[in-house]
Each structure stands twice: as C-alpha cells, then as structure tokens.
Specification:
Layout lengths: L1 E5 L8 E6 L3 H17 L4 E2 L7 E2 L3 E6 L5 E4 L4 E6 L1 H16 L6 E2 L7 E6 L4
Parallel strand pairs: 1-4, 2-9, 5-7
Antiparallel strand pairs: 1-2, 3-5, 6-7, 8-9
Helix pairs in contact: 1-2
C-alpha cells in the first residue's frame, strides 16, 4: 500500500491524497488500524507508524475532531485528516468491500466540500 499526494488533478486545482496500490490483505490491515486506534481508542493515527504503508511524497495523520474538515495541510507534504468519530466510522464502511474481495474499484473516503479529497484505490502508480 502506498500513500501519495497529487496536486492540481483537475481544472479547479483540486488535490488528492491517496492510498493506492494495495491488495485485500493490506486493506484489512488498514481497516483494522483505523478501527483499533481511531474508532475504539479515540486516538490519532500517524500512517507513517504503519509498516505496510510506503510514503511516496507525503505523510498523513488521522485525527478525531468535533467537526468534519477533511484533509488539511500547510505545506503539501504533511497532512491531517480531520473527521468526527462518525466520519471515521463511515470511512470504515467504505473500506469494507475492499476487505472482502479483491477489487478494481475505488472510493473517496469522505464526502466533504474541501480542496483535498481522500482516494482509496487498489490500483495506480
């Protein structure tokens, strides 16, 4: 599984942080890490602490907050994914199909009107 940042992905200047290039087993590892650390323990999760994720050009921390803000950054290298507990529970529901079988699909891990989207895709380079 790789973590990467893409700048200016469309004519509106939108950006994407993506988890990509993974299989079912890695999707399960990611789901379980989010469940255990973020949802069950209400703690932040620094994805650089997960050995199965290769960081290509950025770092991401998942952080529980009072409101859903999406992904925030000051420098396009270090990112915070700021969601409510319910936002992270919804993220787990969106990840679940990738944990059941291999897939060629992809999903955005939240639906917030923000400049930076969070893409979960088993394919990509």
């Amino acid at each position: 599984m790789k973590l990467g940042f893409l700048d200016n992905v469309n004519e509106y200047g939108d950006q994407v942080v993506r988890l990509y290039n993974f299989n079912k087993e890695e999707a399960i590892l990611f789901r379980d890490a989010v469940q255990k650390t973020v949802v069950d323990s209400d703690s932040s999760l620094d994805l650089s602490s997960l050995a199965f994720i290769e960081h290509t050009n950025c770092k991401l921390i998942l952080l529980v907050a009072e409101t859903d803000e999406g992904i925030l950054t000051m420098d396009n290298q270090s990112f915070l994914c700021v969601l409510t507990l319910e936002g992270f529970k919804n993220m787990l529901r969106l990840i679940e199909p990738f944990c059941i079988k291999e897939s060629k699909s992809f999903v955005m891990l939240y639906d917030i009107d923000s400049q930076i989207d969070f893409l979960f895709s088993p394919y990509g380079n």
